[in-house]
Amino acid sequence: MGISALTPPTRSEDIVETTLEFPDNRLLIDLCGEFDRNLAQIEHQIGVHILRRGNRLAVIGEKAAREQAAAVLRSLYARLESGRGVVAGDIDGAMRMGRPMPDRAMAEGEQIELFNAGMELRTRKKPIEPRTEAQKAYVANLFANELGFGIGPAGTGKTYLAVAVGVTMFISGAVEKIILSRPAVEAGERLGFLPGDMKEKVDPYMQPLYDALNDFLPAKQVQKLLEEKRIEIAPLAFMRGRTLSNAFVVLDEAQNATTMQMKMFLTRLGEGSRMVITGDRTQVDLPRGVPSGLQDAERILKGVKGVSFNYFTAKDVVRHPLVARIIEAYEANETPQA
């Protein structure tokens, strides 16, 4: 790759500066970002100071922070060399997955590969990559297993990545259709009767699924595929009596499915299909006393061959950083005090 670390080997372990050299000045400009905003993001989140000196970057700070920042910078440069761009979310993902293991120091000049090309999901509008280790394992399991569960708080990419995998498999011809569903349960509010026909009544509940699709496919193509029934977006209740064959099927907000609804949905799986169940156990909107089908399925299906479970925490939140802190604060508040 041609990147060399220029920190003199004669310095002691308490040195406060590591210098990296990047041979392609054009790529270095892209690495730094407009007005060095990419460097500023790394500085702020890792706690280092980065100085640009020609085609070199000097990373100043404590040893562990310098090693992490150097790993991130090397990996982002490698990403640019491969022809991919760098945006704020890519930097955040690199920092999440670029922390050196606590029991070993990084060797001088060692390259940590943060962006696994095999994990890149190709959609019609943009490539999608996991940005945390949990997301990476989740995507791998969705390809490897016929039934996968993604369980964790809001903002961790459970549904977004599931739909991205579905679109990738649809484009490649691995499945013939995409079916997206969620329970039509109001989130703590009673909205009363909604105007319009059946589609107009249920579409507000399905909007997050439309949003995800429109991120991966052109709007006209989404509309055409919906008209051809090659993409279906429908409430959970509409799944009864069907056999879903050669399809990629996603059940979102599964914590709001009853035990009977969950069993009904899981037994819709047909030949050549993949099914993903996503949910957040802390956001159950079912009436008091009605058990969540997600929790029952988690208990009953643990250990069943062909079924994977992936769990996310506040550390996997890829929305605004404040969302992660909000989730952590609520989790701490719910933890019984000793």
Question: Explain this structure to me?
Answer:
This protein is an alpha/beta fold. The strands form 3 sheets. A 6-stranded parallel beta sheet has the order 9-8-10-11-7-12, sandwiched between helices. Helix 1 packs across helix 3, helix 6 packs across helix 7 and helix 9 packs across helix 10. The longest helix has 19 residues.
Would you summarize the structure shown here?
This protein has helices at residues 25-32, 37-47, 63-81, 88-97, 133-144, 158-172, 198-216, 219-227, 259-266, 293-301, 321-334, and strands spanning 4-5, 17-21, 49-53, 56-60, 121-122, 127-128, 147-151, 177-182, 231-235, 247-251, 274-279, 307-311. The chain has 338 residues and is of the alpha/beta class. Strands 9-8-10-11-7-12 form a 6-stranded parallel sheet, sandwiched between helices. A 4-stranded antiparallel sheet has the order 1-2-4-3, with helices on one face.
